[in-house]
Specification:
- The protein is an alpha/beta fold and 493 residues long.
- It folds into two domains: 7-164, Rossmann fold (3-Layer(aba) Sandwich), CATH 3.40.50; 195-470, pyruvate-formate lyase- activating enzyme, CATH 3.80.30.
- Helices cover 39% and strands 16% of the residues.
- It has 19 helices and 15 strands.
- It has helices spanning 27-40, 58-65, 81-94, 105-109, 111-118, 131-141, 187-191, 234-248, 264-278, 301-307, 321-327, 333-345, 363-374, 393-401, 403-408, 420-425, 429-441, 444-453, 456-470, and strands spanning 7-13, 44-50, 71-75, 99-103, 122-124, 152-155, 162-164, 205-208, 211-212, 230-231, 252-255, 284-291, 309-317, 349-356, 380-385.
- The strands form three sheets. A seven-stranded mixed sheet has the order 2-1-3-4-5-6-7, with helices on both faces.
- It is globular, with a radius of gyration of 23 Å.
- It starts with 6 loop residues before the first strand and ends in a 23-residue tail after the last helix.
- Residues 469-493 have low confidence and may be disordered.
Length: 493
């Protein structure tokens, strides 16, 4: 038995201040902890830290952990890039011997920026449950070589150049992966934070990934998990649900797949198994993400309701057929409308995401999107302004349409005051969103539906967001228009 002390590894989810911070157990990090445990046993001591839980600054954490860990991994979205940069920079100064790794959408979509800004030793592209342990084995335990790790970009020595191995690992058999390290999760603390769905009906909840990949070609998507759809078996999903329920007291599950309902027989089998094992509506399920509306059969809605689904979210984005084609989403809008209305009749609340301000979009097309929302059976709607993200086709399109506006927009802040569309076309997008919110929510029947189907916490949060959006504040950088002028179409050459 080796007397060598275990390798100390800490995986970090950074906190980036924002208007609303979504804070739920970080599945990617928890999965990596399990992968390290499974691969190395007591040779590695791995843990995680979620700075969002207590809104901790990256500099504070760097000072706290300096010299205590051999390897610190940072997983960041694009909107967390600033915090990831700050944490890596502070660690580099305070703990120069610590190896720093970076993963997540930020590392994948902006690798060159990430290299320059963080000075990370390792940057991973794509899924890392297999490649991260491979890199650890090669670097710390002499097993294999870094150059053979798919999707890894690594620094050759402290001052050496970066070497990119290229590619990305795609795990073909998701059932072969160990379940996330749920034993490390403070469920009660997360339950008091703003989760992805925005509401809870159980005392404790957990997010679930049951599949990866999406074959659709939406131009605004990072495609982090690739285009090949892979899914966990019914048995694997039920095993995780049972573990979370019996050992950790979890009563609500938020399924956050890219497209959970692509494999319909599996979706039905999971629902039937949940009902058979626990009873009708004994557990709660929501879909803050993961459902494509135009391929959801209305005949399946009663089954999902009996499984315990009380709310689902569909990403409509735009009601313009032209933009649906341009963006590659190609959503069948009339079918989505039927699903929304059928779900409402089945007693399932439906939320929808809409995006306003795509490149080449006219004000008339924005109006049609808001009209679609207003005339539907939706309970809630979220209207976002478009932020073209680096590494996506939409970013390239925005660059061709108005490169100057693209350079002025902050791409790592989903709530940025300066919007690409506002700068490119001289439109007050804050007024556009306020108008959309007012038209959607100030309707007696919808307000009644919200009161009947929304719990008090969500209602108070929604009211706060609503008041914030319809306030008189106008972000600097977008030209004033005095509200959305529906009759005026953006004139383009």
């Amino acid at each position: 038995m080796s007397s060598r002390p275990p390798l100390r590894v800490l995986l970090v989810k950074p906190y980036q201040p924002a208007a609303i911070t979504i804070c739920e157990p970080p599945l990617g990090i928890l999965s990596l902890v399990s992968a390290l445990r499974s691969g190395f046993g007591d040779r590695v001591e791995a843990g995680y830290r979620d700075l969002r839980l207590y809104k901790e600054s990256p500099e504070k954490l760097a000072a706290e952990i300096a010299g205590k860990y051999d390897l610190v991994g940072i997983s960041a979205l694009n909107c967390e890039a600033g915090a990831a940069d700050a944490l890596a920079g502070a660690l580099r100064v305070l703990s120069p011997s610590t190896l720093i790794a970076l993963g997540g959408p930020y590392a994948c979509s902006m690798p060159r920026k990430a290299m320059a800004a963080t000075g990370a030793d390792w940057i991973f592209n794509g899924e890392a449950e297999r490649t991260f342990p491979q890199a650890v084995e090669a670097h710390f335990f002499g097993g294999g070589e870094l150059k053979s790790v798919a999707g890894l970009t690594w620094r050759a020595g402290p001052e050496g150049p970066y070497i990119s191995n290229g590619g990305a690992d795609i795990v073909p058999d998701l059932d072969a992966l160990p379940l996330p390290a749920w034993d490390l999760v403070p469920f009660d603390v997360y339950a008091r934070r703003h989760n992805m769905n925005g509401t809870l009906r159980a005392r404790r909840y957990a997010p679930l990934f049951t599949s990866r990949g999406c074959p659709y070609g939406c131009s605004y998507c990072h495609s982090f998990f690739g285009k090949r759809f892979r899914w966990r078996s019914r048995e694997s999903v039920l095993e995780e649900i049972d573990l979370l329920k019996t050992r950790y007291g979890v009563g609500e599950f938020q399924i956050i797949d890219d497209i959970y309902n692509l494999h319909k027989p599996r979706m039905r089998a999971i629902a039937e198994s949940v009902i058979s094992r626990y009873g009708r509506r004994a557990l709660f399920f929501t879909f803050p993400n993961g459902v494509r509306g135009d391929i959801l059969d209305t005949a399946d809605l009663p089954l999902l309701r009996d499984m315990g689904v009380y709310e689902l979210t569909v990403a409509v984005e735009t009601a313009s057929a032209r933009l649906q084609e341009l963006l590659g989403k190609k959503l069948k809008l009339e079918q989505v409308r039927k699903v929304i209305d059928a779900a409402a009749r089945a007693g399932i609340s439906v939320k929808a995401f809409f995006m306003l301000g795509f490149p080449t979009e006219t004000l008339e097309e924005m109006e049609s999107t808001v009209d679609f929302a207003v005339r539907s059976g939706l309970t809630m709607a979220h209207f976002f302004t478009v932020i073209p993200q680096p590494g996506t086709p939409l970013y390239d399109l925005a660059g061709k349409e108005s490169p100057g506006a693209l350079e002025e927009v902050c791409h790592d802040d989903y709530h940025a005051a300066r919007t690409w569309y506002g700068l490119a076309y001289n439109v007050d997008m804050a007024a556009v969103v306020r108008s959309a919110m007012l038209r959607f929510y100030l309707r007696p029947l919808r307000l009644l539906r919200i009161l009947r189907r929304t719990d008090l916490n969500q209602l108070l949060l929604g009211e706060w967001q609503f008041l914030n959006l319809i306030g008189n504040r106008r972000p600097r950088g977008d030209a004033p228009r005095g509200g959305l002028q529906w009759r005026r179409v953006l004139q383009r050459e």
